[in-house]
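Ticket closed. Logging final result for CoA pyrophosphatase.
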Amino acid sequence: MNAPDGKLVDRLRTIFDEGHGVELPDLLTDKQFAGRDPRPAAVLIPVTDRAEPGAILTQRPLDMRSHPGQVAFPGGKLDAGEDAVEAALREAHEELALDPSLVRVIGATDRYHTGTGFDVTPVLGVIPPDLPLVPNPGEVESWFEVPLSVLFDRSNYTENSTMWKGAERRYYEMHWEGYRIWGVTAAIIFNLSRRLDITESFGG
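Final structure:
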């Protein structure tokens, strides 16, 4: 089995390049809540190469010390000497046994500063459909796939706000088959949806 290299890859590359060739104001960020020296991190947004493409997300174990039960893309901190793409692929392999050689990398999108002190680079990639992904029980409770036409349709999200670290924090959330997609993960999706005209491109 090889990494995808067909119509979906070509379409995503074209839309990705066009979408990142313009200035976009007011991208979501939690930078105002972060410290001065955020730690570099990366996540992989794995898109399945199927007639109706979807993205793979994970749910963290409920007994984890930090962010228990939260939905996220596979990812984590950069190791010494790594770039964002290398870290995203390594983390996806560690969390889901996703073979890095099966990921066709499209590119890195807008970095997201989290309020917990991370500077996250999301990496978009395309993977074969229906891979036998195996969640690492120490890091992943479960994984699931959401159609891009649903995930990147901003009308499916609700905007909420809460007081955090002495200031109002706005955030978005969406529910999908019992999973709550919100916070940093929803913000990364929201920002990328402004770069990619996904709903029109894949909504059929």
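The chain has a mean pLDDT of 91. No further action required.
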